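User: Show me an example of a complex going from sequences to structure tokens.

Assistant: Sure. Here are the input components:
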Amino acid sequence: MSDTRLDIIAIGNAIVDVIAQADDAFIAAEGVAKGSMRLIDTEIATSLYGRMGPGLEASGGSAANTVAGAAALGARCGFIGQVAQDQLGEVFAHDIRALGVHFDTPVREAEPPTARCLILVTPDGQRTMNTYLGASQFLPAAALDRDLIASAAILYLEGYLWDPAEPRAAMRAAIETAKGAGRKVAFTLSDTFCIERHRGDFNALIANGDVDILFANETEILSLNESDDFEAAVAATAAKVPTLVVTRSEKGAIAIQEGARAEVPAEPIAAIVDTTGAGDLFAAGFLAGQAQGRSLTDSLTMGAVAAAEVISHFGARPVADIKALVTAKLG
Amino acid sequence: MSDTRLDIIAIGNAIVDVIAQADDAFIAAEGVAKGSMRLIDTEIATSLYGRMGPGLEASGGSAANTVAGAAALGARCGFIGQVAQDQLGEVFAHDIRALGVHFDTPVREAEPPTARCLILVTPDGQRTMNTYLGASQFLPAAALDRDLIASAAILYLEGYLWDPAEPRAAMRAAIETAKGAGRKVAFTLSDTFCIERHRGDFNALIANGDVDILFANETEILSLNESDDFEAAVAATAAKVPTLVVTRSEKGAIAIQEGARAEVPAEPIAAIVDTTGAGDLFAAGFLAGQAQGRSLTDSLTMGAVAAAEVISHFGARPVADIKALVTAKLG
């Protein structure tokens, strides 16, 4: 493999989160599955925003959160995603660049506006996401910086971005570019409902050898395999990908890499405030660890440390110095 | 006094805060006084935003924060302030309405955009504010809802809004309306640099009997009186306003009302994260207490409880249920 300019180049939805507190009754009345992500149109976005509580705005987007975290841990990162020419687009671009992440995807000048995710956080810390994809859903393959993708050790893709057609085509093109350059492809399954919509595609990518590192949580790995047997599901998928990482919330996480298995407990935290970004930051820690040549176990620990930080406050990106937290833990 | 529709109608800058962490060296390099508020133009706003870290966006504005807090404590509140027709303007309007605050100031359709405040929070929790006034500085007297002002028990004004000429004229008109309707006027001195710019005007308002309730912190009451003797400054101003409230950070707060003096300690908190909004929320608690007919001491305690909550997290508006915190403390 030739020298790399970046450790990770991610492609994902470029989203600004609007985080509000809500009670369980509000979630139930919306008819949305608590803890999940649903896509919403302009009408529902307007109506829901009008009814929800006051918000905090913070840059988000699953893969964007992951490179934000990985960059904070010292990895050289880039991001590809599309915002519109508006204030939320400026916020997204500012925040990711301020973290040292390379971001130069052209801004889309037409309607619709920049994507936003209306996140309802219940008193138990669970987040329920209502995503208005806006400009993000029209990311064209033409917007990809092929040279940058070819120069990054890992191409990281989010399952969420499989929903809209244009970015899906762009991600297929990006996989081809990365594979052609001898790079690794990492993929996160994102959400069980997302898997239900695209199980065939996801399994085909895996069967085709397109995925080198797969991230899933417990329900996602079960859904992918249409199984209710966790160990069987893990074994089945681990046989098809070189590295499988499965997060299990308070039960910790496991990884299976070329047959070797590692397992870590969850990091203890004082209180779960907002679980938004937990999986994203776990992936950030794991990938940053792998980029630094750390062991499988230490890479998992880095994931657990980063995830624990992000669920201890509102917002899906680190507030504390997670590099220092990792150093305190692992040296 | 006739029946009131509102307990408090506030006039202030309609601002969205952009909160970022910064170290002391960054503040020093900016040449800005730590802990203060400075007004910045488009050029500095763009340059500073480009250099500061990733941000959290949250509705702010001093008087707006105060009515947000007072509404959360059960007071009937309204707000007058001007946003532009843009995404940050929508955020501001949503957030204040979601708190149950009456807000119907017409949106300004021309440039400049909605006001924003670039807030740099240092590791000690101190906030240094860089305010781009945008649409807020053009609030015209014509935008005032005179009937609403006349129908509110208290008109609350922020000293910050004295800087731009149009809102200053609007506030003078509002005072006339409130006084004409037999209502009280509350005023916050906001900031020592603000006092330096407008000491003559502020003292004239007080001398004229236009201010019924005056809020200041320790340095502000000294600056207003050009004194370095705290008790002398308090006594001098208390002789001119029916109610004087002076906050003293970790030393608590005092109030002098028609000659009677009350004093409370600061509420203990685990850690100061971000002092933004401390004074605003103190005023919220005090005014809500007075609206509920609480004693001077209990009104101060409500201010201390609300201020303690807001400095325990990033952002200038309450995250926890401050009404429940007050009930736990005072019943």
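The lines above are the inputs; the final block is the predicted structure for all two components together. The longest strand of chain B covers residues 15-21.
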